[in-house]
Task: inverse folding
């Protein structure tokens, strides 16, 4: 019985982490949709000649 409680607790922790990661990615995608070309390092193209 004690083993089963630990398994349920582990499942709940994993579920919370997965939901947190999903929320983090969806929040990041919404920010990029609002300002798709705001410049910055992530979209900078540098040419060395």
Result:
């Amino acid at each position: 019985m004690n083993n089963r409680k630990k398994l349920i607790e582990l499942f709940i922790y994993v579920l919370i982490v997965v939901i947190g990661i999903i929320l983090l990615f969806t929040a990041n995608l919404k920010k990029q949709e609002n300002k798709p070309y705001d410049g910055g390092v992530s979209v900078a193209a540098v040419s060395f000649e």
